[in-house]
Write a structure and sequence with these properties.
alpha/beta, binds zinc ion
Length: about 300
């Protein structure tokens, strides 16, 4: 699977302001920028699994483990704690994964990359994305060292330190990196935030990004609007600010967290913000693994209730 890096996207906000200034209609602006909700995406129960794009938010307990598939393109984001490495790998095998085009390590916390070594041991992994850290800010958790070692030892695996503003094509999937915009000693705010587009449908994967990084993305002027939001940091109130949520303006939100977790995730305030905005909420702690399918126009959901 070839991964193509496409040209850097110029920030759309300045362009938008100029267009308004010269009096070109809003409709033209929307057509150019792709921002704004030109139509509502339908989210309905899946009647079939026969849709080209499939995104599995795997129930890994308290953590994140995400599988994205479209044709030959297979992207895995995180995987959960080390002790769910086995079950996560089994899940991937059971749904037919053998090769991973791209493994994205959202950020160096063990509830995200703890299972990475198991993924590398089980599959042919063609590339790994992580974030660059300056020397003094380099993560010291052993899971991060294990991840880099596993990627270095994986034959033919390309390691890429991605940065905000970059764009890639993996098969028919378009990926835009929005964060981290700046370096932070809060490693949640070093989470890779990536928007995936397939046809007219888009997903925003946020890792554990918090309010500081959310504001940096807003300030950078990225077009954040996405149909599905992976709610950051397991629904913690340190994330998903009103300003960020209104910029993303999703139709559906997925929260990945463990039943009865010690952090009280998802926090009541975040659920309230999502409910007030009329967003459909899916949760791995109550719904089990949540699978979204798309034909590039609409979204179909299936809950694997335990
Ligand atoms: Zn974290
Ligand atoms: Zn986390």
């Amino acid at each position: 699977m070839e991964i193509k890096k496409t040209k850097l996207q110029k920030y759309l906000l300045p362009l938008a302001l100029i267009l308004i200034a010269v009096g070109i209609g809003v409709a033209v602006l929307l057509a150019v920028s792709g921002s704004g909700r030109e139509r509502d995406v339908n989210v309905s129960d899946a009647v079939s699994a026969d849709y080209p794009l499939r995104v599995d938010f795997v129930d890994v307990g308290q953590g994140d483990g995400i599988l994205i598939r479209c044709g030959d393109s297979v992207i895995v984001i995180d995987g959960g704690e080390p002790d769910v490495g086995g079950p996560f790998v089994s899940y991937l095998k059971n749904v037919g994964v053998s090769t991973v085009s791209c493994y994205i390590a959202s950020h160096p916390h063990v509830d995200h990359i703890g299972a990475a070594a198991a993924v590398f041991a089980a599959f042919d992994v063609q590339s790994m994305w992580t974030t660059a850290f300056s020397e003094l800010n380099t993560p010291t958790v052993s899971a991060y060292e294990d991840l880099l070692t596993a990627a270095a030892n994986e034959p033919g695996c390309e390691v890429r330190f991605v940065a905000a503003g970059e764009e890639y094509d993996i098969g028919e999937l378009h990926l835009q990196i929005f964060a981290p915009v700046t370096e932070s000693t809060n490693h949640n705010d070093m989470s890779i935030v990536v928007r995936l587009t397939y046809g007219d449908v888009s997903f925003l994967f946020t890792g554990d990004t918090e309010a500081g990084s959310e504001q940096a993305m807003l300030d950078a002027g990225f077009s954040l609007r996405s149909d599905v939001l992976k709610v950051a940091h397991h629904g913690s109130s340190s994330s998903t600010t009103e300003a960020f949520l209104s910029a993303v303006d999703p139709a559906a939100a997925v929260i990945s967290c463990g039943t009865g977790n010690a952090y009280g995730h998802p926090h009541r305030e975040v659920l309230q913000r999502l409910e007030d905005a009329g967003i459909s909420i899916y949760r791995t702690d109550t719904d089990g693994s949540v699978i979204l399918f798309s034909d590039g126009k609409d979204l179909f959901v299936r809950r694997m209730v335990r």
